[in-house]
Amino acid sequence: MRLAILCDIHGNLPAFEAVIAHVKQQSPDFLLIAGDIVNGSPDSFTCWQYAQDLHCPILRGNQERYVQELATGQAPSLSHSPQFAPVQWTRAQLGDEICASFADLPLSWRSESVPDLVVVHASLQNDRDDIWGHTPAAEITQMFPEVAEHYIIRGHNHFAQMRLWGERQIITAGSVGLPMDSSNTAQYLLLDRKGSAWHATHQSLCYDHDAAIARFHDTNYLRETGPMGRLCLRELVTGTAHMVPFLRLYARWRKKGVGLNEAVERFLQAY
After folding, report:
1. Which residues contact 220 (CB under 8 A, 6 or more apart)?
2. pLDDT digits (tens, 9 = 90+) for 233-251
3. Cα separation of 106 and 121, whole Å?
4. What is the spatial distance between Cα 63 and Cα 53, in angstroms, rounded to a whole number?
5. Which of 58, 76, 107, 235 is least buried, going by the fewest C-beta atoms within 10 A?
6. Strand partners, 189
7. For residue range 188-216, what is the model confidence (pLDDT) as tens digits?
8. CB–CB of 261/229 below 8 Å?
9. Is 103 exposed, middle or buried (0-12, 13-18, 19+ CB in 10 A)?
């Protein structure tokens, strides 16, 4: 039995198309997308439609939740500020009907025909939980209370990695559209059942990275998303995290009266 697990596409259509072409060559028995199809690059709508055409299970990631909450009036007031312009762009491109439908997406996937394995976006408890090699086992226990499966497959962290948690394996699939390991590749995970065990193989593909960058300039994405859109582009260009580190710094700078445009300019010059 073979599974293909994709996650963290983030509106990057060239990467998504390259991965699906490769997946088809591997002839998996199951294909699953573990969330964050949208937001981060200009082609969220096309990526969402493409995912629908695959007729595979789709989990909700934190990015789907962000646009769903914005479309249904559940988002905090800060979500309407320029700081969240990329989320606002994504909501406008998708339309409120699609965004609202994200509330119906499951948060985890199990199947009787796929033994001893559970798939989530981040954890069973939260769509933003991080798991790294140094994450304490006690914290992971809180993320996966009473989990029975020995293989936990997840995304969210944009790195391809594995770690042991007691007798269990936690396998992070990497990111299709926005890996954070400086590689500028498109990544996904293949799982093969051999005997009573699952064997994971991280896939890392070259794709038309220049075409993905060009979409930022060929659309009105940068004009409408402002300085935060520039951070999204920098993440794609460098394959490194900018958004989360910036937001942590900006929380302090804003208290000192530094505006968003100036703050992004400072950050991009420093990093």
Report:
1. none
2. 999 999 999 999 999 999 9
3. 10
4. 20
5. 76
6. 5, 202
7. 999 999 999 999 999 999 999 999 999 99
8. no
9. middle
Supply angle C-alpha 171, 173, 177, rounded to 5: 165
End-to-end CA distance of the chain: 44
Q: Which residues of the chain have pLDDT under 50?
A: none
Task: Answer yes or no: are the C-beta atoms of 52 and 99 closer than 8 Å.
Answer: no
Residues 6+ apart with CB under 8 A from 2: 26, 27, 28, 29, 30, 190, 191, 192, 193
Q: Residue 165 corresponds to which amino acid?
A: W
Beta strand ranges found along 123-239 (DSSP E): 151-154, 160-165, 168-173, 186-194, 197-205
Q: Are strands 114-120 and 108-111 parallel, antiparallel or unpaired?
A: antiparallel
Structural domains present in the chain: 2-205 (3.60.21.10), 225-270 (no CATH)
DSSP for 33-51 reads: E-S--SSSSS-HHHHHHHH
Residues 6+ apart with CB under 8 A from 72: 96, 99, 100, 103
